[in-house]
């Protein structure tokens, strides 16, 4: 069994926030795997590459590593630098979802993700952690919320960075990504058969975190 707490789910469901809090409470590492797909898209956009035809040669030019940032958490470095807000633009989000449909990209990033976790206990958050990256994860959660609530959360989160985007635009961007992520043939977004589905629509962040920690505690007691 892998020492991984897998947290998967659709965009803006609260995965990163919840995963980070759980890692802090348990004093273990937290890894956001979406940033890997975002970094591949960002690098390809910067290089003027066609996102739909990224090949192994291009991937081999990238240097991707998780390193401790100023706040002491692990963040992704692309070619030796923390990309910062450049990873969070709507263009990069859409590009990430596109490159994530390519088996060559997923295969390449699978090794990076497994290599990071190794023996240590880690909270890993993404789309396919419980289904593909660590199918034998010790704990698996699928965090979700209604599309309306997720659009509302993303708009509130991005604030000015959203470039004056309306709720309807954010909802459309999220719906397009949900569709592409769920319908792709490799590692589609779906709950693992043995994942606990946590609908956070009516929950605060604290309530969602407490629900997950409570379930982990019960699961351990039942062993
Ligand atoms: O990682 P993911 O895209 O799934 O979501 P996130 O970036 O963790 O959360 C999106 C926004 O929703 C953040 O601003 C969170 O603070 C907020 N949120 C919330 O309002 N209520 C929750 N239960 C979870 C997250
Ligand atoms: O934060 P948010 O939920 O909006 O997105 P993210 O977690 O940063 O992921 C960006 C995109 O990367 C997703 O829309 C997926 O297409 C892809 N992704 C993936 O395919 N597998 C993962 N484990 C993580 C992200």
UniProtKB/TrEMBL annotation:
GO biological process: pyrimidine nucleotide metabolic process
GO molecular function: ATP binding; dCMP kinase activity
Localization per Swiss-Prot or TrEMBL: Cytoplasm
E.C. number(s) listed in UniProt: 2.7.4.25
Record-annotated Cytidylate kinase domain positions: 5-216
SUPFAM superfamilies associated with the record: P-loop containing nucleoside triphosphate hydrolases
One Pfam family in the UniProt entry: Cytidylate_kin
GO CC terms of this entry: cytoplasm
Residues annotated as binding ATP: 9-17
Keywords carried by this UniProt record: ATP-binding, Cytoplasm, Kinase, Nucleotide-binding, Transferase
InterPro entries in UniProt: Cytidylate_kin, Cytidylate_kinase_dom, P-loop_NTPase
Class of this enzyme: transferase
Catalytic reactions of this protein: dCMP + ATP = dCDP + ADP; CMP + ATP = CDP + ADP
Family as reported in the entry's similarity comment: Belongs to the cytidylate kinase family. Type 1 subfamily.
UniProt protein name: Cytidylate kinase
Species of provenance: Victivallis lenta
Lineage of the species this protein comes from: Bacteria, Pseudomonadati, Lentisphaerota, Lentisphaeria, Victivallales
Gene: cmk
């Amino acid at each position: 069994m892998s020492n991984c707490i897998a947290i998967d789910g659709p965009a803006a469901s609260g995965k990163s926030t919840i995963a980070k809090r759980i890692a802090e409470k348990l004093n273990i590492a937290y890894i956001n795997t979406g940033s890997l797909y975002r970094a591949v898209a960002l690098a390809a956009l910067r290089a003027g590459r066609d996102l739909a035809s990224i090949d192994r040669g291009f991937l081999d030019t990238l240097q991707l590593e998780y390193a401790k940032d100023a706040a002491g958490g692990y963040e992704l470095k692309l070619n030796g630098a923390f990309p910062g807000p450049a990873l969070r633009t709507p263009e990069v989000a859409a590009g990430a979802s596109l490159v994530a449909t390519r088996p060559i990209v997923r295969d390449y990033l699978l090794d990076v993700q497994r290599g990071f976790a190794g023996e240590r206990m880690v909270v890993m958050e993404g789309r396919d952690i419980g289904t593909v990256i660590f199918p034998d994860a010790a704990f698996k959660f699928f965090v979700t919320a209604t599309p309306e609530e997720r659009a509302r959360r993303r708009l509130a989160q991005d604030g000015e960075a959203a470039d004056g985007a309306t709720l309807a635009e954010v909802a459309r961007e999220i719906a397009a990504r949900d569709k592409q992520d769920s319908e792709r043939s490799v590692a589609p977004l779906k709950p693992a058969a043995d994942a606990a589905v946590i609908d956070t629509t009516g929950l605060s962040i604290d309530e969602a975190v407490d629900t997950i920690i409570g379930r982990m505690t019960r699961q351990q007691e039942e062993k």
